[in-house]
Amino acid sequence: MSDSLVVGLDVGTTKVCALVAQASEQGLNILGLGTAESRGLRKGIVVNIESTVESIHRAIKEAEAACGVSIKSVFVGIAGGHIKSFESFGATGIKGAEVSEADIERALDAAKAVYVPLDREVLHVIPVEYTIDGEGGITNPLGMSGVRLEARVQIVTGSVTAVQNLVRCCEKAGLEVLDIVLEPLASALATLTESEKEEGVVLVDIGGGTTDIAFYRDGVLQHTSVVAIGGNHITNDIAIGLRLPVDEAERIKKSYGVAVLDMESRESVDIMVAGREQKSIPIGYITEIINPRCEELFEIVKKELTEAGVYDKAAYGVVLTGGASQLRGMQKLAEAVLGMPVRMASPKGVSGLEDLINDPKYSTGVGLLLYGLDEVQQPVGYGDIFGNILKRMKDWVMGFIGGK
Ligand SMILES: Nc1ncnc2c1ncn2[C@@H]1O[C@H](COP(=O)(O)OP(=O)(O)OP(=O)(O)O)[C@@H](O)[C@H]1O
Ligand SMILES: [Mg+2]
User: Fold this and answer.
1) Which of 4, 87, 283, 289 is least surrounded, with the fewest CB atoms within 10 Å of its CB?
2) pLDDT at 1 over 70
3) What ranges do the domains of the chain cover?
4) Which residue CA neighbors atom 9 of ligand 1 most closely?
5) What is the structure's pLDDT at 317?
6) Homologous superfamily assigned to 193-344
7) pLDDT tens column, 276-320
């Protein structure tokens, strides 16, 4: 595998996708895509190593066949309801005449000294802003003069077991994990514009098992969390409500599903009941099943944003992506529940295979490539992945925030 090739591996709840791209000064050109159905995850977390390895293997083989290269190493995404972030502060005296790396490190260490429940681990400490002698809004304090340095940070916590299981799956599939990237951040890289990130925007990536949230303002990630509800819940509601097999419920959802009540059509649709007979039901009935779940999802997103104190700070509103954002009426419902303008987004910032890639379900995969491009251009040393995972995840977010 040539050094200028970057591979993003999105291990999602419904699909595993591998994207291979050539990195050059012009940016990224996608050469190959491989996808496989995912059966080993629940709500974004690996619950069955064997089936996950199998899906990864199939996606990688397909991508290799598509572009004729052998894939050895990947940038992989992590999500799951176990990921949460909260704000913390730390302060230190500035030792010399100006702020040094060591002063910044001490301020961040102080901010990190918070209570974290035993079953959780700090994954990232993301600097949001620094304050020197009461003067806030500083993104990089290095070299500035003053007496007291304060750091405001976002602390991202998650289950280490979940990270380790994901890495183990990749390794069992014969892949080296170059880095692990939070999926909300990867999707943000592929969809958000600079002005959105500057003025304030919420990214909402609705997948199969999870909905990833990332809030940006002043060009910096200010809050991220993952809600364990996605398109699969909508499918299951239809399956239970209409007593259908999941495959048929999925087909009905994609072909006739509507998220908002006032958009439903008066027509009827034929469905297979109990795998045999056909039955005609009004489309409005399907909407009545779907609507409460979609509303619940956006209510939870609103609650998350409110609790994080960022709900009224998103001047640019919401950017909606992920496979399940394609459900008809999702944008309208999101606008109604969240009370903000909502833009639908597919991944941007790469060339090649545009027809295939221009789909909101590939936002995370393309974001992993964009992140990988940065690392290819500014390589870091890769060591023992288990030993270094937490440090490297932390370093990545620090680099990302620092305007990598
Ligand atoms: N046209 C469509 N209308 C409605 N839902 C859709 C459509 N296309 C895809 N979906 C839904 O999108 C979901 C899959 O989205 P995506 O591929 O982004 O998820 P994932 O990455 O596998 O899962 P996750 O990110 O939650 O781990 C499925 O629930 C699927 O039913
Ligand atoms: Mg996903």
Assistant:
1) 4
2) no
3) 1-80+160-191+346-404, 84-158, 193-344
4) 323
5) 97
6) ATPase, nucleotide binding domain (3.30.420.40)
7) 677 888 888 999 999 999 999 999 999 999 998 999 999 999 999
Do 81 and 228 touch, CB atoms closer than 8 A?
yes
| 133: amino acid identity, one letter | D
Q: Both ends of the chain: CA-CA distance in Å?
A: 25
Angle at CA 362, nearest 5°, toward 206 and 196?
70
Q: Is 186 left (phi over 0), alpha (psi -120 to 50) or beta?
A: alpha
Kindly state if the Cβ of 131 falls inside 6 Å of ligand 1: no
Ligand in nearest proximity to the CA of 187: 2
Q: Which residue has the tokens 């993003």?
A: 8
For the CA of 363, the nearest atom of ligand 1: 18
In this prediction the pTM is 0.87
Return the residue whose CA atom lies nearest to atom 6 of ligand 1: 324
| CATH number at 1-80+160-191+346-404 | 3.30.420.40
**323 close to ligand 1 (CB < 6 Angstrom):** yes
User: Is pLDDT above 70 for 174?
Assistant: yes
Specify the ligand 1 atom closest to the Cα of 231.
29
Ligand nearest to the CA of 231: 1
Atom of ligand 1 nearest to the CA of 361: 18
DSSP state of 351: B
Dihedral of CA atoms 217, 220, 345, 311 in degrees, nearest 10, equals -40
Atom of ligand 1 nearest to the CA of 16: 22
Q: Does domain 84-158 sit in CATH 3.30.1660.10?
A: no
Tell which one of 13, 229, 260, 333 to mutate to probe ligand 1, the residue whose CB is within 8 A of the most ligand atoms: 13
Q: Give 122-156 pLDDT, tens digit per residue.
A: 767 788 899 999 999 998 999 999 999 999 998 88
